[in-house]
Amino acid sequence: MTGITSSTARRLLVASYCTHFLKQEMRHIYRQVTTLRGVDTFVIAKFREHPEQYPFPDVATIGRPRVNPLRRAWLKYGLRQPSFFYRGEFEATRRLLIRRDPDLMHIYFGNTGVHLLSLIRAWDRPCVVSFHGMDVQTRPKERGYAADFQAMLKAVALVLVRSESIGQRLVSLGCPAEKIRLNRTGIPLAGFPFVERAAPADGAWQVVQACRLIAKKGLPTALRAFQVFSRRFPHARFTIAGTGPLAAQLATYAKELGLQEKVVFTGFLTQEQLQQLFAQAHLFCHPSEMTPDANQEGVPNSMLEAMATGLPVVATLHGGIPEAVRDGEHGFLVPEKDPEALAAGLRRLCEDEGLWLRLGRAAHRRVKEEFEQGAQIARLEGHYGEAVERGGRW
Fold first, then answer.
1. For every residue of 354-374, which 3-state class applies, written as one string?
2. Closest among 155, 168, 141 to 298, alpha carbons compared
3. Helix (H, G, I), strand (E, B) or coil at 300
4. Which CA distances in Å does 261 have to 224, 255, 344?
């Protein structure tokens, strides 16, 4: 790609590419782009979503560029170019990069990196791509995806991962290990302050899970576990915060389990509402599980936010969860898809108030020491600097 020259007289400028800026569940991305301190950034997006919830002053929307129908047909059927070309996105993005002259591009999500492969190859500046969990899937039903996936991993300067488990998975899929850099999700501790709690005198324990209502979050297992747990603590309540395609199915399942009076589905919550929910809760539950299409978890954002407020966790030995929660130190970890073991973990905490308090305080310290937002942003900016120094060459 021509028309872009090196610039060392200004602060590092990063083009943050995110196809949808932003879906409601992408709060962690908003935190990154709005708290960069040592570099500047602007956002490139195909679609601008929820601007009232995620205001950002510098978003360039590509949208759906106008392309001559004959030229589109020739590129698609004659030259068999990928959709990024024949839909006009390549040219629109190229012109934007020439005009804004960034030093590098941060591509959010691995599948987006595959979509942008031709641009990554053509541009004379480095790119980094960050993986968050679901984007580690190989998509065997999509022709050519596996080859393009590996080509993208080789073409980018650095590969950022939210958990060590994601990094290990990428190495198994052909990513050079020397390219991988750990970049944890940063939690703003001021937004999720530690809360001193007391055990409920009447056993009315408040259990909470906050997540997208999708298969890998293990919500049916959580409901079955709560049914078992509530036999010991009949006044307990379970709050599930979030939206997703399984919402109606889960509400029906809760009724089938006889939990309609004990389980509350709140829908999507703002950060302030989520903090209030955590402040009123006693336990955080998150039984993530591997799905048949290998959709795995990184380190769940909501789990870290809950831990920051002092909630002990009962979760599963899945993905990056053990990197944040040490069994017996910050909560308990049980096998996937095991509601009895999950219920036993919840029950163990509630039957020992001293243990419950101790693990909750340790959970807060864990987030403060390992996942604090400022430290993670500084690490991210360091990765940007390294990528620019390497210039994409290995």
1. HHHHHHHHHHHHHHHHHCEHH
2. 168
3. coil
4. 15, 9, 22
pTM of the model: 0.90
Contact 196, 280 (CB under 8 A): no
Burial 206-234 (b: 16+ CB within 10 A, else e): bbbbbbbbbbbbbbbbbbbbbbbbbeebe
- Identity of residue 137: Q
- For residue 163 the two structure tokens come to 């958990």
Q: What is the mean pLDDT of residues 350-362?
A: 98
Taking the C-alpha atoms of residue 296 and residue 220, their distance in angstroms, rounded to an integer, is: 17
Structure letter (DSSP) for residue 78: I
Strands 180-182 and 206-210: unpaired
Q: Which residues are paired to 241 by β-bridges?
A: 210, 267
Q: Which residue has the tokens 């698609």?
A: 76
Q: Which two tokens stand for residue 329?
A: 């130190």
Residues 6 or more apart whose CB falls under 8 angstroms from that of 18 comprise 26, 29, 43, 44, 45, 108, 109, 112
pLDDT in tens, 133-167: 889 988 888 889 999 999 999 999 999 999 999 99
